[in-house]
Amino acid sequence: MKTYEYHHIVNFEETNLVGNVYYANYVRWQGRCREMFLKDNAPDIITELAQGLALVTVSVSCDYLSELFAFDQVIIKMTLAEVKQNRITMLFEYWRTTDQEEELVAKGKQEAACMKRQGEKTVPIPIPESLKKALEKYQ
Q1: Could you report the per-residue pLDDT of 104-138, keeping only the tens digit for each?
Q2: How many domains would you assign to the chain?
Q3: Cα–Cα distance for residue pair 98/81, rounded to 1 Å
Q4: Domain around 120
Q5: In the chain, beta strands by DSSP E
Q6: Which of 91, 97, 105 is nearest to 21 (CA)?
Q7: Cα–Cα distance, 23 to 63 (Å, whole number)
Q8: pTM across the whole model
Q9: Under DSSP, is residue 94 helix (H, G, I), strand (E, B) or coil?
Q10: Residue 130 — φ and ψ, nearest 5°?
Q11: Residue 139, in any domain of the structure
Q12: How far is CA 34 from CA 27, 41, 42, 55, in A?
């Protein structure tokens, strides 16, 4: 299965008083990975977001297997789990990398719905064609 990879180096801002990465940052990195996927694979969707398209996060989760610390190098690997109607489910794996090895430190999942802003409400819409094509590469 093909994965989209986002490379990240942990900084002090992302750690807590104990020195490990604060749990909420893993979810932030899911969002960052998703954004970079759009930039690299479906840049027109970014324009559509400014014109009323909304990729609404419906659910998000993360299971933590090992701690990360400042200056750890992490690869977040995103794969497509499911496309159903206007919803996209993505899986995330967080890998600490060194010159010698990779260690799986967390796993996540996120579901997003394609919506359109109409006045003060949002309504479901089909997944835009360019996004569908971009996602096909990762099935």
Answers
A1: 999 999 999 999 999 899 999 999 999 999 998 88
A2: 1
A3: 28
A4: 4-134
A5: 4-9, 53-64, 73-84, 87-97, 102-118, 121-124
A6: 105
A7: 10
A8: 0.93
A9: strand
A10: -65, -35
A11: no
A12: 11, 10, 11, 10
